[in-house]
Amino acid sequence: MKSTKVKDNKMKTKVQLEKILNQINKKGYKAYQQLKNTYQYPTYLLHLDHIQKDPYARPTKAHITIKQEIHQIPKEYYNTIPRKIALETIITQRFHQETLKHKYNFKSKITISHNNQEILLRNNININKETLTIYFNIGLPANGRRINGIEAQKLLNNILPDIIKNTCNYKKYDEKQLQKIITTNEDAEYIRNNLKQKKIVSFIADNSILPRKTGNNNKPLKTAKPFKTPETLKITYNTPNNNKITGMGIPEGITIIIGGGYHGKTTLLESIQNGVYNHIYQDGREYTITDNTATKIKAENGRNIEKVNINSFISNTPNNINTRQFTTNNASGSTSQATNLIEAIETGSKLLLIDEDTSATNFMIQDPLMQEIITTQKEPITPLTDQIENLKKQKISLIIVTGGTSQYLQYADTIIQMDNYEAIDITKKVRKILEDTPQKYSKSEKKLEYTIRKPRKGCLNSYKGRKKVTKSKELNTILFGTEIVDIRDIEQLVDFDQALTISIILDYITKCIDSKTSIKDIVNKVDQDIQNKGFNILSKTNHNLVYVRPVDIASVINRIRSLKIV
Fold it and tell me: Please, how many CA atoms are within 13 Å of residue 15, restricted to the half-sphere of its CB?
């Protein structure tokens, strides 16, 4: 790496940093506050932005800036948005991996937020024509509550420079692999932008590896069978980087995935639902691409519901509940699943994903014999089967996994059988069977309706007393004001920092709630604001923020128990 000097009267040098650390060694921990400044190193600038006041407090916030002529990463590697995000993903992953190579003592540590298998826009890194900027955290070393200046020097002047040298230097990367990483993401984004052109809602490339190692390890299962496309569903994309990518295109409309237990039905659906995000090179799902608005619909016992119009599915209840403005703080399986479906449509989802394993049976089906025994007048629940035609009329597609009922087959446009993880198009075969086997085709006389809901001004409050609370606990809960919001069943949130980001977005949208603007318009405005102005509109100091889809933000809003609809 080359050397550079930057003239700035306020700036300090590496030697001056060492001097300060020697002076404050063994003093009370608050003396670390003297470090807040910018320091010039031979190849980069170190900015210590916020110094922790206690060894048990949140770590020190820092960032580095490196000029392009120093890191020497070719500009064509980040001259498009997909290339830039892929490159930034690899750099933060490398930075994280380098931090793990070092041993830390006395409560010291260097950490960074980073993508896992998904490629997501983050605000802790930015590369442009002039500089590379990376934000990270530093746990400054201590003996009890006293400064360990000697260890701090090792951390800041030995360990950190080593991490930066191996992360922010083009020569440290395999050139061919780096090119493959960025072009793969660019090609994946091209496919995503051209799904509608092919009239498909999801694409799974040949030779994709869909199964994961374990339930808590999202890396590919090396022994898995590569995906093979049925000839009848084969689609080819000619991508910008001269790649001819062939795979299975799932058409718009109603797709049913069937098969025996443990043959890969749910694995396929999970790959489709996670296809709303691009994935890193060699993940196995690089070219598993799904409509951005796709939403997983499931039963969610106990969730909060505020004035949702579920009359298309639930009506004529014995106690005359108003199901056009259905409200409860403890939903049943069927009412929660009906609500999740209607809320998804209300927010703009054009693809609904359903697995019978996580669904309410009485929401999904009612067999012909049961319909004869329990007449329509006595059954408040209209099963999903009866509303499929109405969903199709509104150009909403469904992908449904089922292994226990044949009722959905008669409504299907496409039927895929999973046989030992191999996809087989059996649409014609099933239609022939259906012709020879009379079916009772059930259709609801009720229209598929939903209400555009508008939150009441002032109903969401991020304050708990005088303190603003916007936190998250992994992917389980969001702490917002006085509320604990359960987000465990929003399956398409995949990164811990997405929960954190939503908690901060919730505070941001309190300014947008005016009793006149719909939930859909609110979340789309936030998304547009972030695209136009960056994550700084949410926070200028928090650099652990990451992309979240508008439909997922809406899903969280709908689960806040203080939400009130006008």
Answer: 1
Q: How many domains does the chain have?
A: 4
Residues 306 and 379 in one domain: yes
pLDDT at 6: 42
Nearest Cα to Cα of residue 275 among 286, 289, 285: 289
pLDDT in the model for residue 371: 78
Tokens found for residue 68? 């392009």
Model confidence, pTM: 0.94
Say whether both 69 and 135 belong to one domain.
yes
Residues 233 and 333 in one domain: no
Residues 189 and 99 in one domain: no
Consecutive 10-residue averages of pLDDT for the chain (566 residues): 50 96 97 97 97 94 98 97 98 98 88 96 98 98 95 96 98 97 98 98 98 93 97 98 95 98 96 98 98 98 98 91 97 98 98 98 88 79 95 97 93 98 98 84 81 97 93 93 96 97 97 96 97 96 97 98 97
Residues 337 and 237 in one domain: no
Collapsing DSSP to helix, strand or coil, 295 comes out as: strand
CA-CA distance, 371 to 375, in Å (whole number)?
Answer: 6
The tokens of 179 are what? 């090119």
**Where is the domain boundary, 136, 153, 173?**
173
Is the domain of 153 the same as that of 16? yes
Q: Quick check: is 493 in a domain?
A: yes
Q: Does 514 lie in the same domain as 379?
A: no
The pLDDT value given to residue 5: 45
Indicate whether 299 and 283 sit together in one domain. Answer: no
pLDDT value of residue 106: 75
d(CA 119, CA 88): 9
What is the C-alpha separation between 527 and 92, in angstroms, rounded?
Answer: 23
In a domain, 445, yes or no: no
Q: Distance between CA atoms of 95 and 91, rounded to whole angstroms?
A: 6
Residue 565 within any structural domain of the chain:
no
- Cα separation, 437 vs 329, in Å, equals 44
Nearest CA to 77 among 40, 116, 113, 127?
127
Q: Which long-range contacts (CB under 8 A, 24 or more apart) does 510-516 make?
A: 510/460, 510/461, 510/462, 513/455, 513/456, 513/457, 513/458, 513/459, 513/460, 514/457, 515/454, 515/455, 515/456, 515/457, 515/566, 516/454
**Per-residue pLDDT at 446:** 84
Give dist(CA 299, CA 335) in Å, integer. 8
Distance in Å from the first CA to the final CA of the chain: 61
Is 451 inside any structural domain?
no
Tell me the residue range of the domain where 54 lies. 12-173
Tokens of 294: 């796709």
Q: What is the per-residue pLDDT for 7? A: 43
Give long-range contacts, CB 8 A cutoff, 24+ apart: 32-36. 32/60, 32/140, 32/147, 35/60, 35/140
- Percentages helix, strand, coil for the chain (3-state, rounded to 5) are 35, 25, 40
65: its two tokens: 């800036």
